[in-house]
Design brief:
2 copies of one chain form a homodimer. Helix content of chain A is 49%, strand content 12%. Chain A is of the alpha/beta class. Chain A folds into 2 domains: 6-177, NAD(P)-binding Rossmann-like Domain (Rossmann fold); 181-291, 6-phosphogluconate dehydrogenase C-terminal fold, CATH 1.10.3660. In chain A, the strands form 2 sheets. The first copy, chain A, has a 6-stranded parallel beta sheet with strand order 3-2-1-4-5-6. In chain A, helix 7 (179-205) crosses helix 9 and helix 7 (179-205) crosses helix 11. The longest helix of chain A has 27 residues, at 179-205. The radius of gyration of chain A is 22 Å and the shape is globular. At the A-B interface, helix 7, helix 8, helix 9, helix 10 and helix 11 of A face helix 7, helix 8, helix 9, helix 10 and helix 11 of B.
C-alpha cells in the first residue's frame, strides 16, 4: 500500500470512468476514503454494493464536503451545473478536476465558477470502452494510457504535480498541455473518428438495396469495428461535439477534402495515387504499435484472437506467434 | 480426419489468405495434397518450410496441373493474368475459385477466359487481418466467419455445393448471392469503411498544428482503430477500389451527404439531432453482437483486455465479467 495521495476523494458521477478510478485508486492505495454522487438511486445502490464508494450521496454538494480531490466524471455539458452546485461546499485547499474529452470550454466556463481557495486542474484520461455505467469499470482501464492535464496559467504547480502523481498511481502516463491544443489534438485523434463511425453506421442503416441483416451478417469486413466505436455513449458524444465545435469543423473540412481527392482517384481509375496514399497510412500504423498504444504481448494476442475475431484490417495488433 | 472433399488443391498465391486455407484445410482433413504457387522464391521457400504446401511451383501453370480445386489467392487485379496463364493447364472437371473482395469484375473478366470443361465458382471469405504474407496465416481465421459464393447462372450446382462444403469444413458459414449484390453489400460493410480509415490516417499525417508524435501518442481515443484498418495491404485495396468503382462511389456519395448533415448539426449547435443519430448507431451495434460477429466469451475477453487495450469506443466486445 502506497502512501495515500489524497485523504478523501469525491467522484461526481459513477459511470465507466468514475468506477474505474475507484478500482484503480483502491488497487494502488491512493486515498483513504471514496465518496460518490450519482443522480440515479439505482446507480448509488450499485456503487455501494460493488464497494466503489464508502458513501453515495444524492447531491453533489453533500459529496464534496470533506473531499481533498473532487473529480467530475460526468459528460462535459453537465460540468457547469455541477460547478454551480458545489462551489459553496468545497473544502478550502481542495483540488477540483474533471475527465471530459473537451478542455477549452471547461477551462473557460467551469474555472471562473470555483472559489479562489480551491485548485482547478482540468484533466482528460484517453481511455474508455464503449460500455457505460458503474458495473463497466475495471482497475486496468488507465494502465499505460495517457492522461492529459490542462491547468490554467495561474494554477498552483504543486496542485498540478499532486494530481499528476495521482494519475500515475492509477496507471497512466501524464502529459500537460494547453487546453486549446488539447482540443485540436483530440479533434483528429478521437472526435472526428467517432463522428465518422457514427455516420457510416447510420448511412448503412438507410440503404434500401442492402438489408440491415446483411450489413450485420457481413460486418466482419471492417464495418464491425465502426459499430463498436459508434456504440459509445450518445450524451457524452453530443456534448463533445457541441463543446469542441471549431476544432471538429476544421478537421472535418480537411477530412472531406482528402476524401473527395480519394473519391476522384477512384472515379478516374488512378491506381497509383490510391496505392501511394494507402502505403503512407500503413506507416502511421507502425508508429502506433511502436509507441505501445496498441500491441500486446504475443501470448496475450494469441489467446485473445478468438475473442475479438480476426478480419480484414482489424485483427488485434501484435506479432502473432509463428506455428 | 474427414473424408477429403478434393484430392489435390492448388493455392495460387500463398499470403495470409492462402496460408490460412492451408492450415484450416489440414486441420479438417479436407484434401490429400496441397500445392502452391508464389511469384517470389522467398515465399515459396517459406511455404515449404512451414509445411503449407507439399510442392511450391514457380509458375501457376505448373501448380494447377493435377489440381481438383484451384484457389486464386491473389489481389483482384492479378486474376485475369493468372487465368490466362492457367487456362490451358487445368485438369478437366476441376473447380476454379478465388477469394477476391470484388466479384462482379471477376465473373465478367475471369469467367470467359476459362475452358468449358472446368467449373468456375467465385468466392469471398469475409475474414482477414491487417497482416500479410505466408507466415501470417492461422487455422482459425475462417471460423464462424461468412464466405460468399457468387456462381454465374450457368454453373453446375453440384460444383457450387462441393465448394460450399469445403468452406464449411474450413470453419465458415456460406451464403450464395449474385455478384453485383455482393459488391453493393461489401461496398458499405468493408470497402468504404477501409477507404475512410485510410483517409483519416492521411488527414492526420498532414496536420501542421498537431505533430505526428501527438497523433500516435493519443491514438487510444479512437484513431488507433482506424490505423489498424488502414494497415491492410495497399495492393489488394487499390484493386478493390478500381474494380468496385460504381458501388463504392454510390456509397461514398451517401456517406458524404450524411456527414455534411452531421457537420451542419454541429455548426448550428443542434444537440437533439446529434443525440438521436448517435443513439440509432448504438442499436446497430447490438445487432452485430447478437449476430455473433463480434462478441467473444467473457473469459476470453477478460484475458484479451490488456493485449488489445481499452479505450473510448473500441474495447473488445463482449460482456465483461463483473468484479
Amino acid at each position: 500500500m502506497n502512501q495515500p495521495i489524497y485523504d478523501t476523494i469525491a467522484l461526481i458521477g459513477i459511470g465507466l470512468i468514475g468506477s474505474s478510478i475507484s478500482h484503480a485508486a483502491r488497487r494502488a492505495g491512493l486515498c483513504r476514503r471514496l465518496v460518490g454522487h450519482a443522480k440515479s438511486e439505482a446507480t448509488r445502490a450499485t456503487a455501494l454494493r460493488l464497494g466503489l464508494v464508502e458513501a453515495a450521496c444524492p447531491t453533489a454538494a453533500e459529496a464534496v464536503k470533506n473531499a481533498d480531490l473532487v473529480i467530475l466524471c460526468v459528460p462535459v455539458g453537465a460540468c457547469v451545473r455541477i460547478a454551480e452546485e458545489i462551489r459553496d461546499h468545497l473544502k478550502p485547499g481542495a483540488t477540483v478536476t474533471d475527465v471530459g474529452s473537451v478542455k477549452g470550454t471547461i477551462v473557460r466556463d467551469v474555472g471562473p465558477l470555483l472559489p479562489p481557495n480551491v485548485h482547478f486542474v482540468p484533466g482528460h484520461p484517453i481511455a474508455g470502452t464503449e460500455h457505460s455505467g458503474p458495473e463497466s469499470g475495471f482497475a486496468e482501464l488507465y494502465d499505460n494510457r495517457w492522461c492529459i492535464l490542462t491547468p490554467p496559467e495561474d494554477t498552483d504547480p504543486a496542485a498540478t504535480e499532486r494530481l499528476r502523481t495521482f494519475w500515475q498511481g492509477l496507471g497512466s502516463n501524464v502529459e500537460i498541455m494547453d487546453a486549446d491544443h488539447h482540443d485540436m489534438v483530440l479533434a483528429i485523434t478521437s472526435h472526428v473518428p467517432h463522428l465518422i463511425a457514427f455516420n457510416i453506421v447510420n448511412t448503412a442503416a438507410h440503404l434500401e438495396r442492402v438489408t440491415d441483416s446483411e450489413v450485420i451478417k457481413f460486418s466482419a469486413g471492417g464495418f464491425r469495428d465502426f459499430t463498436r466505436i459508434a456504440a459509445s455513449d450518445p450524451t457524452m458524444w453530443r456534448d463533445v461535439f457541441l463543446n469542441n465545435r471549431e476544432a471538429v469543423l476544421e478537421m472535418l473540412g480537411r477530412f472531406t477534402e482528402d476524401l473527395i481527392h480519394l473519391q476522384r482517384s477512384i472515379r478516374y481509375g488512378d491506381g497509383e495515387t490510391l496505392f501511394e496514399l494507402f502505403s503512407k497510412a500503413r506507416q502511421i500504423r507502425r508508429g502506433v504499435i511502436q509507441a505501445g498504444q496498441d500491441a500486446g504481448s504475443a501470448a496475450a494476442f494469441y489467446r485473445s484472437r478468438d475473442a475479438v475475431g480476426a478480419k480484414p484490417g482489424n485483427a488485434p495488433a501484435g506479432d502473432k506467434p509463428k506455428p
